[in-house]
Amino acid sequence: MKWKEISVVTEGICAEAVAGIFHELGSGGVVVEDFQAARRYETRNKWNKGLFSPDFLDHDFVVIRAYFSEDSQVIDQVSELLSRVEENFGVKCRILMDEVKDEDWEESWKKYYHTFKVGKRIVIKPSWEEYTPQNGEIVVELDPGMAFGTGIHASTRFCLRFLDNFLRGGEKIIDAGCGSGILSIAAVKLGAESVFAMDIDDVAVKAARENVKLNGLSDRIKVEKGDIVEKIGDLEADIILANITAEVINILLPEAAKALKPGGMFFGSGIVDSRFPGVQEKLEKCGFTVVEVLTDVDWVGVAARKI
Asked: How confident is the model at residue 110 (pLDDT cuts 50, 70, 90)?
C-alpha cells in the first residue's frame, strides 16, 4: 500500500494544533520532529549524531508529518485549517507532500528505532531486536507500524514514567487514544489487572491489537475503535491514560472524572507548554489535584489525583 506523506514546517508553539488537525482528518500516523528537543539530547550524549544531517541541530522549526491513504483527498482541508492556525498563532506553515510505501516505512523504523529504557523498569524493544532483561526490568515488545506511540517522543515517555512511579498493581485502566498500544502493554506488565484501550484511528487499532498479541496479553487488554469521549462515561477505572492533546484532554476530563474511582489517577500528556495552564485549570474544576508535572522542551505531562 502507498501512503501520502503531508509535512508541515512551522514553529513549535503550534505543533500540537497541527497534529490535532491531522488526527481529526483521519491520519494513519503522525510524527513530530522537534529539533529543540534533539538539542537537549545531543548535550546529554544520548543519540547518534551520525544518523542525522550536519545542519540538523541548527533548525528552530518543527516538522509535523502525517500519513494518509493514497486515495484520500485531504489537502484542501489541511490548507484551510492551517490558515486558521497561522491566524491564531501568528506563524507561517509550509506544506510539503510526498509518497511513502508500507515497506519503506517499515525499513525506516528498523534502521533508526532501537531498544531503549524509560524510567526505572520499562524497556521498549522493537520486535526485530533481541534483548535480555536485567533484574526488575519489564520489556514491552513493539512494532509501531504507522501508529503513534513508539516511546521516543516526550509525551509517551511522560506516561510511561507516570506508570512506573504510581502503579501499584491490580488496577483497572483506561487508555484513551491508545495508538500503538505501548502504554496499555506497559501498564499490564507493571501489574495492572486489565486495560480498556480505544482509538479513533483504524491504523492505530490494528497496530495496538497486533502488539497486544505480540506481548501475549490479549486476555487482559481489550482494544476497540471509537471515540473515547463518548464511551468513557460507561466505564470505571483506577487510572486513565490520555496521551493525546490539550484540547482533547479538556473535553475528556469531565467524563473521565465520572469514570475514575475516588483517589484514582489521571495521566495527561501530549500537551504543549503554552496550553498547560488551561489543562491545569480544567483539572481543578473537575475535582483533581496535580501530583506531578514533567516537562521536556515545549512538552508537558501531568499526573493528577481525583479528590
From this structure: low
Q: Kindly list the distances between the CA atom of residue 197 and the CA atoms of 84, 172, 194, 258, in Å, as whole numbers in the listed order.
A: 32, 11, 10, 17
Q: How many CB atoms lie within 10 A of CB 229?
A: 18
Angle between helices 246-259 and 15-24 (to 10 degrees): 70
The yes-or-no verdict on residue 129 having pLDDT over 90 is no
Contact predicate 257/287, CB 8 Å: yes
Q: How far apart are CA 19 and CA 65, in angstroms?
A: 8
All structural domains of the chain: 2-100 (3.30.70.260), 149-306 (3.40.50.150)
Residue 9 has pLDDT above 50, yes or no: yes
Closest CA to 263 of 239, 244, 280, 246: 239
Go through the chain and tell me how many residues it has: 307
Separation of alpha carbons 25 and 127, rounded Å? 29
Contact present, 197 and 147 (Cβ < 8 Å): no
What's residue 60's pLDDT?
58
